[in-house]
Design goal:
The chain is mainly α. The chain has one domain. The model has no long low-confidence stretch (mean pLDDT 81). α1 (8-24) packs antiparallel against α2 (31-46). It contains 3 helices and no strands.
Length: 71
Amino acid sequence: MTEMLVSSEGIAGAVARGNETLEIDPTDTRHMFWKEMKRLFFAMLEVEPYDFDDETMGEFLSTIDGVLNIL
């Protein structure tokens, strides 16, 4: 598996692609993917390391594994 570095430019590009999808055809349900990725990104900006206890971290890791497997 190749690791990719996350950069602000990369995230901005993903947000721009999501916005383009909305502008091209707002009835296309694929825009929901980009909308949710944008929501996740902004939520991550507000999370502090101490916000997660062991149980919450376990739930998060289990859930994000499912998302990443789909991607």
